[in-house]
Amino acid sequence: MCGIACIYNFDKNEGILNELLKIMNKLQHRGKDSYGICLKELKGGIKSFRESGMVGDTHFKENNIIISCVGHLKYRTSNMSQTREQDIQPITNDIISLSHNGNIPNVTGFDTQHIFDLISNYNGTFKNSLINIIKTIPAAYSLIVQKGDSIYIMKDRYGIRPLSYGFKKNNIYISSETIGLEGCNNIEEVHSGQIIEIDKKGLREIYRHQTTYDNICAFEFIYFMNPYSFYKNILIKSIREQLVTKLVEKEILFFSKEHIVVGVPNSGIIYGEEYAKLLSLKYEQLIVKNTDERTFISSNLEEIQKTCHKKFKYDETKIRGKKIIVIDDTIVRGNVMNYICKSLKECGAKEIHIRIPSPPVIDICQLGISINTHDELIMFNKTEADVCSILGIDSLVFLEKSDLDIIPFNTYHECFGGGIKEEITSYNKC
What we know:
Blueprint (H helix, E strand, L loop, with lengths): L2 E6 L7 H11 L7 E8 L4 E7 L13 E9 L16 E2 L3 E7 L8 H10 L5 H11 L4 E7 L2 E6 L8 E5 L2 E5 L9 E5 L4 E6 L2 E7 L7 E2 H7 L5 E2 L2 E2 H14 L9 E5 L3 H12 L3 E2 L3 E3 L11 H11 E3 L1 H4 L3 E5 L7 H12 L4 E6 L27 H8 L3 E4 L12 E2 L18
Parallel strand pairs: 14-24, 17-18, 17-21, 21-22, 22-23
Antiparallel strand pairs: 1-4, 1-10, 2-3, 2-4, 5-6, 6-7, 7-8, 8-12, 9-10, 9-11, 12-13, 15-16, 19-20
Helix pairs in contact: 2-3, 5-6, 7-9
């Protein structure tokens, strides 16, 4: 999971870099390890700026009229244990820049660099080099490629990661999610296996693969995407509310007015509020977020513990002696939830019940999530009762994999035990 963004400046307006930064700030939840910007000035080549951490107040300034600018927000994938300076995107050689959201299985090293090298070293036309990527690499990538005065946007033929574009004041805006396209008109999702060229003549499709699939990652709907983003005109928040409805249908206990529902900030709040509403229970935000880091991303236990310590604070006066129902989007390794449960018990919670509006994560994701072994997963080869014992809680309920059928799109959900088409991982260029 990363965030990619771009603006093509037909009107040659000033302030385009600031507009790009606005999009990137809206996509910050998709990547907080590092960010980078590449821009093509009206006169001159591609200039770039890269930095670790979050966008914040960048010192990268717009000095001349910009034709196009591309931004990237990085989240570590399974191919990368830590962020290195040379791996911060966009990757550029001052002629071409490349931004990539996804993860390509079976590529040794930095998969984005691998794509970049294939494009740069292709023995043929530049457009054919992009077509070759679509034809030879099954998944998973959404790409923005900058070359000269042209921008190319494209998506693998399985459509694993989102990428949308829209129009604003005659300019074209591109974003991983529609939350970055506020104020745009005629918003469209890039099709699976599609390549679109944007230049001074306008926007046009230059290639569409004959055999394509729409298998967007289920985690995009459960966790990654902003709840107020749309995917193909469907609000993500509405899908999450439907998942909660499924969760309520599976309730095994009778909860009374003694029970208080709390959503784990930030992604669990919408789930928690909906759960409380459907069961007519009291909702209180007894867990408050101090920092905006996504802790499940890290596999380092010490790092997680340090982050959790500063990430959450608890309203002890309202927790003591209370029966607490904790709602979160998922439990992956269980380290964060274990810390939350421990903290609630230290605050004097009488009961702790956990409800998760997604299936248990029981398998390794090969297309973007930083999980390297099954042993990292708290639910691998365990029952709900086993995990209740590990966390020291009173009850635990997940959705089942079949409940994901409420998502009105075909989804890739290997992490939930959904399997994966062999062809997706058939690329073996190491």
